[in-house]
Design goal:
497 residues, 15-stranded mixed beta sheet, 18 helices, 43% helix, 18% strand
Length: 497
């Protein structure tokens, strides 16, 4: 029976109905046969498409696939072929513990690099711990970054998901503009969505007028020609700064004040930022250029990571920088999280703001306490994403019954992403434990094996724990039926978030 489309002739009604019926089946078939998709994701999308045919089809066409366009993939692959390998066998570490070696092997397989030793890595932040510590940590990190930019002589390369024109963002912009005016080659790339207000404002014009080369990444994803079988909301979530090929910054911190005025209701935003020197800087430079060169086509940069031989440092921290995203192999970031969890023998501490894990991550974390690993996770008490917050809490009962300690941080948006293993290994960067970071966004992370560095990160995690409230199983089991219904309903659809 044909649907009635507003008094159109019967033959046209029949034609439209037949077209939609065929389109409905084709989209459902596409969702079922799409490569590199978990069964839960297939089931969720097919359910959406079948239960809400028109809305489901439109949603799938807009959000169901992670393609960034064939032309962009070809540009990225071509850039990778022209750039020198991120590998650095000359700086291979002298000795790596067996369980750490396997993690570095997995991380290195993502981008083709190997762990490097001779690095000096510092966690930035204030040394004391007053009530306004998050703000002080943010200011200390920005102070260090601005100081290094002011000393730059050759190049400043910056990539941020969010750059705001506030006190911190303005200081960094002024420092970069001043560096460009004195002849330093400055390149800035920001995500077209995350930094849209900054791009539209005076600071962007200031940087351009000073001679800074600017790039808005993924700014064409929402054009009509990219709608079919491509997500409109893919993002460049990387946070990278490389100065003079000698100093690099990475972590969870965007270029903004802790007050984070675009979402001030959840402030302060609490982050981690690392300052790196040594051979790992070359790898981080590679990650920046792998995003810059395909989009700009700027000539002469292919060999840039080799422009200077990074110095080795006596601290000898072992590290490996890697990136994941829509063009890396499927499940690369999920595999790293799972491997780190299973590598823990005594202690596992996880801090993440957005926890919508796939089944493999959730099961790995649940198994950790049963293997005798003291496992603690810290989440923000209030999440800036209601959907993510609900999906996260749907996992509480499962985690708690397995012996995982859950703590909620009440003093702001705990935005840090840090996993520490047995006090000697850390995974730090931009990636969250949610579908976006696992499958959709471009992310950069740093795997570190060094007791001194990891001790500093553990101390920061302990500071979060000291201010957090522990969540007890009895409390979770006492949540009202409506709350559990909403949480589980949202979690069931997490593969399509």
């Amino acid at each position: 029976m044909a649907l009635d489309w507003g008094g159109l002739p019967a033959s046209l009604n029949l034609g439209i109905t037949a077209f939609l019926f065929v389109a409905h089946l084709l989209v459902a078939a596409r969702a079922l046969t799409r490569a590199n998709r978990a069964p839960a994701s297939r089931a969720a999308w097919v359910a959406v498409i079948m239960l809400a045919p028109l809305v489901g089809m439109v949603a799938y066409l807009l959000l169901g696939e992670t393609s960034i366009g064939r032309a962009r993939v070809e540009r990225i692959e071509h850039a990778y072929q022209r750039m020198p390998s991120a590998d650095d066998e000359a700086n291979a570490p002298r000795m790596v513990a067996d369980h750490a070696a396997s993690l570095f092997a997995l991380a290195g397989s993502i981008n083709g690099a190997h762990a490097v030793g001779g690095n000096r890595i510092a966690l930035l932040g204030a040394r004391d711990c007053p009530a306004d510590q998050p703000k002080r940590d943010c200011l200390a990190a920005i102070d260090a970054l601005v100081a290094d930019i002011e000393q730059a002589r050759e190049s400043v390369h910056i990539a941020f998901y969010i750059w705001l024109d506030d006190h911190a963002g303005g200081r960094v912009a002024d420092a970069v503009a001043a560096a460009a005016k004195r002849g330093v080659a400055c390149r800035v790339m920001v995500d077209a969505f995350g930094s849209r207000a900054f791009i539209a404002g005076d600071r962007w014009k200031q940087l351009g007028a000073a001679g800074v080369k600017l790039l808005r990444t993924l700014d064409d994803i929402n054009r009509l020609q990219h709608i079919a079988f491509s997500r409109m909301d893919l993002r460049d979530h990387r946070k990278i700064v490389v100065i003079d090929n000698a100093v690099a910054y990475c972590g969870s911190q965007n270029c903004a004040d802790a007050e984070f005025r675009v979402k001030a209701a959840y402030a302060p935003w609490i982050d981690l930022l690392l300052r790196c020197e040594g051979p790992v800087v070359r790898q981080i430079q590679f990650l920046f250029l792998s995003g810059w060169i395909p989009e700009t086509g700027e000539p002469g940069l292919e060999r840039y990571p080799d422009a200077a031989a990074p110095a080795r440092f006596a601290e000898d921290a072992i590290a490996l920088a890697f990136e994941t995203g829509p063009i890396t192999r499927a499940n690369a970031m999920s595999d790293m999280f799972v491997a780190c969890v299973y590598a823990a023998r005594r202690e596992l501490v996880i801090v993440t703001p957005y926890f919508v894990p796939d089944e493999s991550i959730l099961r790995a974390i649940c198994a950790a306490p049963r293997r005798g690993v003291a496992t603690r996770i810290v989440f923000p008490q209030r999440n800036d994403s209601w959907l993510v917050g609900q999906a996260c809490r749907s996992a509480y009962a499962d985690l708690l019954r397995c012996g995982v300690e859950i703590h909620e941080y009440p003093l702001g948006l705990l935005h840090s992403k840090a996993m520490t293993v047995d006090g000697g290994i850390a995974l730090i960067g931009s990636a969250n434990m949610d579908r976006r970071s696992l499958d959709l966004n471009f992310e950069n992370n740093l795997l570190i094996a060094d007791e001194r560095v990891v001790s500093a990160i553990r101390a920061r995690q302990d500071a979060y724990l000291s201010m957090s409230h522990r969540v007890l199983l009895e409390k979770v089991e006492a949540w009202p039926f409506t709350a559990r219904l909403v949480q589980n309903a949202v979690a069931m659809m997490s593969p399509v978030l």
